[in-house]
Structures are given as structure tokens and as C-alpha cells.
Here is the input.
Amino acid sequence: MATQPTSAKRATGILVSLLIVAIVLALFFAYRRTVHLHLLRGPQLHVSLRQLPYYAFCSLSRMTAAYVLALIFSLVYGLLAARGRAWERVMLPAIDIAQSVPVVGFFPAAIYFFVALAHGSRFGVEMAAVFLIFTSQAWNMALGVFESVRTLPTDSLEALDAFGATGWLRLRRLLLPACVPKLVYNSILSWVAGWYYLIACEIIAVGPAHYELPGLGSYLMKAADKGRTGELIAGLLTLLAIIVLMDGIVWQPLSEWAEKFRYEFAASSEPLRTFGALNVLGSVGPAVLQIFRAMGRPIIRGFRRVLAATPPFDPAKYPALQSGSRWLRIGLAAAAIFVVAMGVINGTVALLRTLMEPWPAAVHQIPLATGASLLRLIAAYALSLAWTIPCAIAASESPRFARRLAPFAEIFGSMPATALFPLIVIFVIRVTGGMNFASILLILTGMQWYVLFNLLAGVSQIPADLKEAARSFGLSRVATWRQLTLPAILPSLITGSITAWGGGWNALILSEYFVYRGTTYRVFGLGAMLDDATYQTGNGLMILLTLLSMVLVVITLNRLVWRRLYDITTDRYRIDY
Amino acid sequence: MALLELKHISQSFPHAKGTLPVIEDLSFTVEKGEFIAIVGPSGCGKSTMLRIINGLMAPTSGQVLYKGRQVDGINLECALVFQSFALMPWLSVKANVELGLEARGLAPAEREKRASVYIDKVGLDGFEEAYPRELSGGMKQRVGLARALAVEPQLLLMDEPFSALDALTAITLREELLDIWQSADMPVHNIIMVTHIIEEAVELADRILVLSSGPGRLVADLKVELPRPRDRRKEGFNALTDKVFSLIEERA
Here is the structure.
């Protein structure tokens, strides 16, 4: 059973979170101030089918780079956070904050930061994109690692202790294998999320930021902008093909492989079955895995040989080193603290200087804009619920419907919604002539799948005997919904809603401001305001205040609404006996 | 007229290779006032049969007659007690017990009255507002029993009701079940209980139906003539237990 966090713990959590936000903001401004942003123009994008494979390759490379970084990060971070309560207390709130921040909003900031680092070269934008995708992938993976290690049964840890297995052996034989199931599961989720943000980055880069980042997203955007529907659809199909192929060749075999590492006897979470309909690929996958394994074997063997040749490191033999390493540690810590402190001081000064600037008139509109955006999100959320809950109920009543729905949901859900943005915008603008409805629709595409997936998972976990009991006692359909189906899926609904709102805030930034055929379509809202401030006026204060307002609303909603609902539902509507 | 009549019931499920027969040509009759135990090895389709009697499942072939009429859909004069208790974790004890009453269209006041009567009967007085997760296994099954009794069924169906409980709790609950069945003011006079615990069957039932496994067939239909209260130390108890054992082993 989960322990209830005490209010003191919660307070430190919030304090740490605020501190982290402050540090990040301060660092951002410290750098932003020193940079005179001057982007060199990248290569011109061509909307032609011949260029499509190249763009696909660019996008895929960006994804891979970000994923590898996220993988390394999550292992290091997760293992460290699981080392002790003290680590956990700082590192978990940090992830909590990072997860709830609308990443897309920080893309402009990231561009500034990385372009400055790269001295204005194109590589800076690449780094910014990779960084952004990384931030969309890393957190849940790190949490997965942390949870896997944290929930390891003590007896297996004790068994290794009893055998004197420490260090590398312990890592290789226990900790890493223990992480595999959750890491693979989260990798698949992260990969899907990564596509979403990759396309978002590329769209932003080519759209409002007027910088061409060669890739599928920018291609789709350009094709839409030029009204080339055929090329647009070809681009979408290419994207779909890549997603399906990657799934069949990499993720499906990986998740099958990961099943072997599952520790618990009763599977707590369903094995993530991906595209069941495309089993042909499933047979290709293991073969590819074999090839990878064959290639990896000599490397591992060599590594092992080197390890075997070096005597195990025993610090007790080197007293000098021991005291030395202590000084080294202190020195490193001091250096790290110094760097962070300098950053914070610099940043605070820059921050204050920014705040001293004359405030633009638009500042007064921020609360109203926040409200408008919030209303849009609520509307999109209501729409998501309006179709996903009936769907989930239908799936609970008819397994056949659930089976038929699953492949569609999987394919549509893993298609990054951002890729459809150009298509949706063009269509809706043509029909309604304005952006208002399109904006809600775009947010909807960023929200609905999270709700649907979680609800379907919840439905599939309703115990058969409860369903039988409801039928056996003659409950009517409506009574069954009320007494069984709805309460049973409530925890999934809350989890899904939390992720959906996260997705919604991210979509917001892309949804309120769109450049199409040279015309800027915009609605009144926080996202549009942020876009305006970054790409049109370049007003640092406005960027800061809109971002701050957004982060504040997100965190407040999370703490006051979602966290509470989550606690209540997991407490009362949990199915366990 | 017999209370319940099963005629040539067969049931098979779709399987990777064609269909998997679970029950084959099963026929028997239940007279009014009988306590029947169905025993058999795992996989003999005894739980499936209970579900067919309740109407949760339609048999692949054959007929179920209840009071001479063919059962079509859920038979609301039955109530089922589950091995896993199958209580809604989000409903209080009282709301769980009222579940079947609501389905039968009782007014809220009437529901409440009847629920509290049966909660008392199973000895859970004072736990009306508790949630299932706060109860021990034995108490959960008492709720399951109260829920089934509350609809005042003609026929009580019990699917391994005491298998998930520890031995001592099971003994107490068995005695209480007998008390309930024998007391005149209780509407339930017919019980069909599925079990794999042979002593349980011998202790409780008037008749024991022995099924073979894969697919389930009726092997024996034994009348239990031992006087009540029965005890394993009394004469005849062990002899009958051994007989049922050997019947199952022969066919396994």
C-alpha cells in the first residue's frame, strides 16, 4: 500500500519545486541576456516527393538522438534517485515539475539558449529540437527506472548482499534487469510522445520562428502552406509508415523480450501490445533483434574480458586515494555549487533587469488570455470525454467492439496529433473562415487519445467476477454503468485526464497561432500571446510573464485538482482483493 | 414438479484448435428443499455449470428447466455467491447488499430495511458503512452471502464459497450456512454448491454429484444419509469421503 505523503513532505516537495523553477528561469535569463540572437538561414525546404525520404531521415535521426540521451539520462537519474530517501526527496519533485511544464512553450527559449551556445549556427536549432524531444521523453522513463528499483523486493537485494555481489555485478544482474519491463514500456510511450514534439518543433521552426529545420514536420507545414494536398498526404503516409515500421521492427520485439524480466507474478500492468494487426512485421522484428545481438556480442565479450582482466577495485587498499577521493568529492561539489550559484545570481540580476523594463500594455491582458485558453482547454476536454467515455462503456459491454476498436485507436493514437495540425487547420479555416473552432479541435487532438487509452486499459482491468456479479443480480444496463463500469474506470479516467491536460497545454501553444499562406490566424489566448512575444515583438518580459502564468496555472491545477482527485480515486476506487 | 432440471447439457468454448469441450451431456434433477454439492477435479466444468444454471451463460446444447420452464437469460430467482466474493470495492457493505434489491425494483426504504435484516443475519451488525477492503476474508464472504440472501432467492448457487478462506473461518461459515438453510424463517431452501473440498460436500449436502474432468461428465449421484449435525469423527463420514475420493481418482 502506498504511504500517504505527510503535509511536511508535501511542503518540502513544493519548496523544492519552486526552487527548481526559480533556478531554471534564472539560468534562462542569464543566457538570454548575453546573446544577441542572430540566426543563420538554413537550407531552403522543398515540397517535393523526391526530398521526402531525406526529410524522414532527418526527423528519425533527431528522434533517435533524443531517445538515446533520454535513455542514458533516465538510467542515471532513476538509479541515483532510488539510492536513498534524501536523493528521492529532491529528485522526484524535480521530475514532477518537469513533467507538468508545457515543454513546447519553452522551445523558443531553448532555441535562444542553444543557438547562443552554438554561436548562431544551424546546429543550435538542431540541439534545441533534440533537447525538446528529450524533455518529452526522459521524465517518465526516469520514473520507470526509479519505480523498478524502488519496488524491488528486499529479499532479492538481500540475496545479492548475501552472495557479496556489489557494484557492477549488482547493477548488471539485478538493477538493470529489474528496470527492463518498465523502461521498455515507458520507452514506447516516450517514443510516441517524441514524435508529437518533434513535429511540433519542426512546425514552430518553419512557421512562426521562420527557421527551416529539415524534417517531416516542416515538410508537412510547408506543403500545407502552399496548399499542396497531395504532397501533404504523402508526407502523412510516410510518417505513418515509419511509425508502424519502427513499431514492428523495434518496439514489438523489445516488449516481448522485456516480458522475460517481469518480476511480479500477477502482471500489474498489461503488456503493451502494439499493432496487433501487423503481425507480419512481428516476424521480421526478432530476426533484426538477432542481428543486433550478433553484432553486439563481440563488443560485450571484449568488455567482459577487460573487466575480468582488471582486479576488482578495493578502496580499502588505497588509503591515500580514499582521503583524496573525499577531497575530490568536496571539491567537485563546491565547484558545482559555485557554478549554479553564479548562474542563479547572474540570472536573478538579468531577471530583475527585465522586470525593470517598462511593462508593455499587453501585460494586463494576460489574466484574461489565461482564462480564454483555460476555457478552450475545458471545451476540448469535455469533447474528449464526450466520445471516449461512451466508447469505453461500449468496450466494457462488448469485447468484440473492444477488439475492433483497439487497432484503430493504436494507429491513430500513435500518429502524432501535431502532424495532422496543418491538415485540420486548412480544412477548418476553409470551412469556418476563422481559427476559433480549429483551435479547440487542435487541442482536442492533443488530449483525446490519452483519455481513450487509459479508459480502455481501465475497462480491460475490470474483474470478470464483478461483471458476472452485476449480471447475476440482474442489474440493468444503466445500473451496471453506475455501480460497476464508471466507478471501475474512474482511476484510469483521472490518470488519463492528467496526461491529457499535459498534452492539452502543449497543444495550446501550437493551437492558437497559425501561419497559413502568409496570413497569421490567431485567437485571443495565452498560447497566441506567447507566440506573439517570441516571434513578433521579441519582448523578453512578455515571454517571461506568459510562461510564468502558464506554469503557475498548470501547477496550481495539478496540486489543487488533479492530485487530490487522484488520491481520492486511488484510495476508494482501487480494485484490490 | 422438480425445481430444476438439466437435460443433456453440453458446453464448449472456442479454442486455438477448434473448440474445447468443458461439459458433455450432463443431466440431473434437483428436487425442492435439497442441498446439493457438486464435486470434481479442477477443469470439470463445475463452475461453468453453475453459471449455466444462473443463466449467465447459454449452454452450447441442451436444456435447463426451472420449475418446468426453460431458462432464458438471467434467472432472478437464483442468487450466486462467488469464490472471490466479487464485492464492488467502492460500495459500502450496505450498498453491496442492496445491489440485487435495487435491480429488483425495491423502493429505497424497503431496500434499506431488508439489507439491514440480512446484514444482521450474517453477523455483520455494525459494519454497514464499512468498505470491503477494510474487512477480513471471512467477513467479505459474509457480505457476499448477505447480498445473495437479501434477494430472497429460491435457489442459492455457491461457487467454491469457502475456498478462499482459511480453514478455521471456513468451518464457522459452514455451520452458519447450515443454520440459515435449516431455519424456517429463511426463504432459501435450495442450495447448489460447487466445491473441490470433499469433506465440505459430505458435511453439508443431501446429495453429492461427482463430475469427471475434461470434459465434465456425471460420474456418480450419491445420496448422503448421514444424520445431522455431521462430524468427521462420526461413523460413516470418512467412508463416504473415501468413496467420493476414489470415484474422482478413477476418472482423473
Notes: The longest helix of chain B spans residues 167-182. DSSP finds seven helices and ten strands in chain B. The interface with chain A takes residues 51, 54, 56, 74, 76, 78-80, 82, 84-91, 99-100, 102-104, 131-133, 140, 147, 151 of chain B (CB under 8 Å).
